[in-house]
Structure formats: C-alpha cells, structure tokens
Amino acid sequence: MAWALALILFWPPVLWASLQLDVGRLQLPGVSAHGVTLSLDGPTGSIRIAELAVAGRQWRSVRLDCPRLRLDAGRVDCRDARIGGVPELADARLDLAFSTATRTGQVIARFAGGGRLVASLRPGETIGASLTQLPLALAARVVPDLVRWQPLGTVSGHARLAGGRLEAELRLADGGLADTAGTHAAEALAGQVQLKATRRDGSWHWQTDLTWTAGGVFWDPVFVPPGVSLRASGQLDAHRLGIDDLHIQAPGVEAVTGRAQIDRVARRLVEADVSVRRADLAVVVPQFALPVLAPAQAERWQVAGWADAAIAWRDGRLHATELTLDQAGFAYLGQRFRVGPLSGRLPWHRADARAGRLTVDGLHWQKLDFQPFALDVAVDRGVVSVGPARLPVLDGAIIIDTLTLAQTDTDWRGEGSFFMEPVSMRALTAALDLPEMAGTLSASMPGLVVTPRRIGLDGALILALFDGYVQATGLEVVEPFGLLPRLRATVVAEHLDLAQLTETFSFGAVSGFIDLSLAGLQMAAWRPLRFEATVRSTPGDYPRRISQRAVEHITALGGAGASAAIQRSFLQFFNDFGYREIGLVCRLTNGVCQMQGLEGAGAESAPFTIVRGGGIPALNVIGYNRRVDWEELIARVKAAVASDAAPVIK
Q1: Helix axes 548-557, 630-642, angle to 10 degrees
Q2: Which of 94, 331, 391, 610 has its CB surrounded by the most CB atoms within 10 Å?
C-alpha cells in the first residue's frame, strides 16, 4: 500500500524507536512484492516478503536485513544489507536507495572476489544494470542445470530495459567449464555479445551479435578453436524460440547460414535449414571429422579441397542433406595412398533415394596410378550405394561389381564385391617395388567387409598367377589402420609354375609345379605368429629338374646340418638334376618352426627328406634339424638368395 510506505518514509525520526508495519502488497515497475512486513528498531531495520517477483523470476520467504538504515524526506538508504531467501544473492552485500518523490532507485550488489552488480530504476519505468567482473559461477544459481558444468570466469557489461525494449552488451573473460568426466571442457574463453530485443504481440523480437576471440572448447573427441562470430535474429515467446536469420563465420569456413524453430517446452529442435559455404577441408576435416571417424589415425591423413553442405531438419528429425565437393583430395601415410582431385555431389533424403555422381581425376597407391574414372552414387536413407564401375589401371582394370557404405549404431560399415581384369605382372610388380614377376594377374574378391576396426572377406579371395591360382578364405585384418594390425587367413595354392616362381625370386631354376597350403595363419604388425605351411609337388606327368643353385636354397630350408646327396660324386659336375617330388611342412609356434619332410612326422632327431631324387642324375635333399628358429630360417634364406656362392653337394 502506497500510504503505508509514505507513512514510514515521512515518519519523524524521533519516533522510530520501534515500529512494525504490515504493508501487504508493494508494486513497482518490474517488481512485485506480496506479504510485505517492515520492522524498524532504531537505525536498523528489516523487510520480510512472502512472495517476491523481479523480471519474471519469483522467490518466497525473502528477508532483507539492513544494519544501517536511513529514512529521510521520502528517501530510503540501506547500507551493507544482507538478503535471505534469494540464493543468487546469498553471499552479496547490498546497498539500496529509493526515492518516492522521483520514483527512482538503485541497488548495488557486491560479491566475494570483487564482482559488482549495479541495478537502477529511472523515470519512465527504465531499468538499467551494470556488471563489473561478475563471477560466471553465479549463473549456476540462476540456472541450476549449470552446476554440473562448474562455470568459471567473469562477465562485465551493461543492460537496459525501457518500455518493452531491451539492450545489452556483455563481455566474458577467462571463461571456462567442465563436466565431471572431463570429456567436455573449455578454458580461457573470451568474447562479447550484443543483444537487442523489442516486445510486441506477446513475444520478443530479437537480434544478437556474438564474437568468440580467445580460448578453446573440447567436446570429446573434437577441439574447437576460437575465431568464431555469430549474427542472428528471431522471435522468442513462452513456447518457442525462432531463429529467422543465422550467419556464422569461423576459421576454415566462408559462411554458415540458416534458420530454426525450437520447442522450448520439450527442448526439441522442430525444424531447421543450415547451409555451409566453401568449407576448407584441410581445416574442417582434421578438426571435426577425423577425431570422430578415425581418431587413432587422424595424424596420418592429409586433406585438401573445398566443400559445400546443406542440411534440412523437419518434424524433429534429419530430413535431407547434400554435400558438394570441389577439387577435394585425401592422402594417407605420406602420399602412399592418395585420392583426388575429386568433384561432385552426394545428396540424401529421408523419404526417398537420391542420385549423385563423383568424378575422380586421380587415385594412387604406392606407385600405382589409376586413370580418371567416374562413380554413380545412389543414396537411400542411411545407405550409400556405388553403381558398377571400371577403374582403369596399368593394362587392365579393377571392376566394382557392388559397393555400399552404411552408418551403423556404433560406426560405419562398407561392403562390396570386386574383380580384376588381367594385369601384366611385370608392370604391376614394378609399380609396387616388388621382385619382377612374369605372366598376368587376375583376381576375384566377393564379400568384402570394411569397418574402421576390421577388414574381412565373407567369401574367398582368388588370384590367378604363375599359371595357377591362390585362394584365401577366412581372411580378416583387425585394426587395419592401428599401430598393431592383426591378420588371420587360410591360404591354398594349386599348380604354381615353379619355373616362373623361382625366376621371380632369384631362387635358382626349378621346373615343375607345386601345391601350397597355409592353414591357421596369424600375423601381428605384418609378422607371422602362427601357421602350418605345407608344400607338395603337384601330382601329374611333367618335366622335373632342379638347378645346383636351387639345391643350395632348398638345403637352407632344412636348417643347420641339412645336406644334398646325389647318386655318385662325379655327378656334382652337372648343372641340374632330376627329382621325383618335393615336400616340406613348417608348423610355426612361439617363433620356432617344427619341420617335416615327405615322410611326415618323426622323432626329434630323425632326418627328413625335402627333395626325393628321380631320373638321371637324381638328387636327394635331407634335413636333420626338425626345430628351426623362424628368424634364423628367414635370414638363412635371404642370405642364400642374395649369395652367388656355389652349392655344397655331398
């Protein structure tokens, strides 16, 4: 009641000794108080308020204790006051001043640590506020959900509300936040925000400018640097936040524009349209894409080129996207694998399939260069399908029969089926820095499955080479892009031409054919851990000859003490020999190769036959050591192949 307040203010000071007055209700611009009781006791006083509302916020059982109170000619001055029932001001010291004559007033709140808030009421129902190094932690008192983020830093600036018009300018210094797990954090943040809003037709029409100038944000696994500016405008009411015009500038992006509608009650994005223009892939992909898609290999990739993107959100769900690439390029492990430049567009729509196309002007692996090719792409909801395509390489081509990429609940997954048209082995081995091989190579690779953590074949990999074929089943590479890739497979080869094979690896000259099996192969970091390898002469009637140099190399496989024996010593002057069959088994476990010959298993000290002679002159190669260290065996073979020394024949 105004009369009660006036009575207090103009009551002669000599009569203040002790007074209590129930005011009931007090109404000021932007302030409403119910159940107001004033108590005076000499120069001190207190005010109790059952319900207090300021700028839309409400509190109950509020108490203001004023140890230094002055009432004089319609003016109230209260110094060093404490307030209870308002958590936001729990540790603040307040100075209050109010004049009933001019209807003006001021509240100064001083916080621990030096923060200061000055709020003033001016004629014409104008409310102003000035903030000086106000701790950001106080925001957690206003918005309890912020408590778990442990906000840090200070805010300075000013705000003004007059006749339904709000203007504010705030500056953040040394800002920071962190969750308890440490997976989301920010530190040393600095920036400023300007806000203008006008209330009409029951809603606020607003516009804002925000600049982020320092500090960084880590949102596991992405780190976002400063240098971001935002300009936006829209409407705000009790139910919705509308963003009509959004414009963002950030490092590596020419512009981000958009609009959105947000349901404030359900806290849900209802609809939105966002456009990204001229994104620099060399900046954006390492910062935002690689930490999510391939965090362990992020340092191994190099990216270049430009991209545009458009995103549409409808009815609370992703509705459509479109990605346009311009001269994009990707390289892995220092140019060992390169793609690009490539250009084209990839659209996606929630309701139906969309067609896209990519033009690839370059694809390089090691020294293998593909000719330009194009890929027709169909995007149907969460699945990207690549149509049949021919990728020319050397004098042949790799044919994509089927290829799909899909996003799963936990990662992405690729599936495909490929085959290779015959390619010259001489050209292929030269491009891959392998020993020169004769003949041609063709391949079939059905059922290929690729994820960031696994490459596997549901079918069989079949290679045609050395006039025979090699088949791999159960092929699987775990952590292929990690520091310790692990491979498992079972390999079978039949009818490999020994003449081509030994010529390729400078093994000496052997004519005939062999079959090979490699069961239970396990490798780590591309080094064998376990397998059982079996080599046998292919059954059939064909010439079988072996040179002295090949004898030396085969003898090395028998380990220390292995020897070659011929029928008569004078036949050592022959350049090559006849043989009836070749057979060797190596069972690798714990770095040791358990050897067997044509006779199969035997006693530890029993000799075993690697080559059984036949024809004239005939030759036998005998091994005596059934346990051979794997590293020593490889070193022995390498030394024998590299040496031009004549074999020792007994």
Answers
A1: 170
A2: 610
Task: Report the distance separating Cα 538 and Cα 557, nearest Å.
Answer: 20
Q: Write the DSSP string, 263-319.
A: ETTTTEEEEEEEEEEEEEHHHHIIIIIHHHH-GGGGGGEEEEEEEEEEEEEETTEEE
Which pLDDT belongs to residue 572? 56
User: How do 608-613 and 576-589 pair as beta strands?
Assistant: antiparallel
- What local confidence, expressed as pLDDT, does residue 175 receive? 93
Q: Residues 324-333: contacts with CB within 8 Å, 24+ apart?
A: 325/358, 328/281, 328/303, 328/304, 329/303, 329/304, 329/305, 329/362, 330/301, 330/302, 330/303, 331/301, 331/302, 331/303, 332/297, 332/300, 332/301, 332/302, 333/300
Q: Which residue has the higher pLDDT, 470 or 576?
A: 470
Instruction: Give the 3-state secondary structure of residue 388.
Output: coil
Residue 93 lies in a domain: yes
Give domain status of residue 608, yes or no.
yes
Q: How far apart are CA 52 and CA 85, in angstroms?
A: 10
> Under a CB-based contact definition with an 8 Å cutoff, are residues 425 and 465 in contact?
yes
Is the predicted pLDDT of residue 560 greater than 80, yes or no?
A: no
Dist. CA 118–CA 251, nearest whole Å: 37
> Cα dihedral sign for 174, 175, 177, 183?
negative
Say which range, 54-63, 336-345, 615-624, has the weakest mean pLDDT. Answer: 615-624
Which residues, other chains included, contact 202 with Cβ-Cβ below 8 Å and sequence gap of 6+?
237
182 or 641, higher pLDDT? 182
Which pLDDT score is estimated for 443? 82
Last residue of one domain, picked from the residues 87, 110, 133: 110
Helix (H, G, I), strand (E, B) or coil at 59: strand
* pLDDT (0 to 100) of residue 87: 80
**Predicted pLDDT of residue 556:** 61
Are the beta carbons of 436 and 428 closer than 8 angstroms? no
pLDDT for 447 beyond 80: yes
Cα gap 137→219, rounded to integer Å = 20
The number of distinct structural domains making up the chain is 2
Q: Of the candidates 60, 90, 110, which is a domain's last residue?
A: 110
CA torsion sign, 494 to 495 to 501 to 502? positive
Question: Can you point out the beta strands (E) in 350-504?
Answer: 354-360, 363-365, 368-370, 373-380, 383-386, 389-393, 396-407, 412-424, 440-451, 454-457, 461-465, 468-478, 486-497
Residue 403's CB: how many other CB atoms inside 10 A?
A: 20
- Residue-wise pLDDT for 290-339, tens only, equals 888 777 777 888 899 999 999 999 999 999 999 999 999 988 876 578 89
Q: What number of other Cβ atoms are within 10 A of residue 539's Cβ?
A: 10
Would you call 268 exposed, middle or buried from its count of C-beta atoms within 10 A (0-12, 13-18, 19+)? exposed
Chain-centre distance for alpha carbon 20: 67
Going by the DSSP 8-state scheme, the letter that residue 645 receives in this structure is: P
Residue 298: inside a domain: no
Residue of 35, 36, 41 whose CA lies nearest to 19: 41
Tell me if 554 is assigned to some domain.
yes
Q: What is the mean pLDDT of residues 637-641?
A: 66
Domain of residue 556: give its range.
Answer: 466-642
d(CA 320, CA 647): 72
pLDDT at 555: 67
CA angle 232, 235, 239 (to 5 degrees): 130
Strand partners, 579: 613
